[in-house]
Amino acid sequence: YVPPQARRAEETLDDKKREELGRLKKMVNGLINRLSEPNLSSISGQMEELYMANSRKDMNDTLTDILMNACVTAVAMPSRLLMEHVLLVSILHHNVGIEVGAHFLEAVVKKFDELCKSDAEGKECENLLALIAHLYNFHVVHCLLIFDILKKLVSTFTEKEIELILFLLKNVGFSLRKDDALALKELITEAQRKASTAEKKFQDQTRVRFMLETMLALRNNDMRKIPGYDPEPVERLRKLQRTLVRSSGSGKDTQLRVSLESLLSADRVGRWWIVGSSWSGAPMISDTNSKTQQKLHLGKVSSKIMELARKQRMNTDIRRSIFCVLMASEDFMDAFEKLLK
Asked: Does the keyword Nucleus apply (predicted)?
């Protein structure tokens, strides 16, 4: 039961909070709408000030919502626009804290997974994939995630997936080759194997052939063979990033080395990649092993001490263990060693 006075206080607090969030959303929206390469420096500075003035959670939620609404549409977004938005995220990720990039990345990956499973006709999947690719380009996420996504797409291998593989390789193929040439080689071999077995299935063979040609060009480090490949815009924005990121280098040390599976199951098993991330869920690993050890340990003590433990209301295994250790130890060293066990 909540008394009426407390209820009223809660309602006004909610209204106040809503009003605050609405104001914050307007401010962030205004900054995002004005975002372009020349004013990136001032806008990222203003964003940092907002992060200092408001709670991180509110800022992360607001920024992610606004960016997702701006970038994930049914039509293909201009790559320049996507790059600038992701560059802003990456600057905040390096200057404010890694939870900024982590929050945005998780939202993007979950949405991408959801849309991949549904048969959406629009270009949302491409836009989301471009966001993930640029998060990798600007050192927010490690190549591990990109390889996970590519493996997933190769394992499904329908026409939609081939389209997405081509799109991703065109954006980050050569960076992947630099970061982990062996993993890329394995992926290409797997894709070739899939293509040879699925040859009868596709009416339009040209896409598959084109994908394999692109992969071979990647393997041989031949940029000319990939039509429309232009690394210049990304390089220019990377230079800009280096001037705006306060920490040394381009922030390789703050790259999130997180796998696709970890991101998709974050609600169930927690977010280990964010330091201090609070989480209240089922334990990650079943502690059956520790329970058997405790039971074994309890089996050795006399029934008299067990009875005493019961009288003292030692109602869990661990409490009983500690009580029995303290009562039955020879000296303090013995007790210390048993407690450590």
From this structure: yes
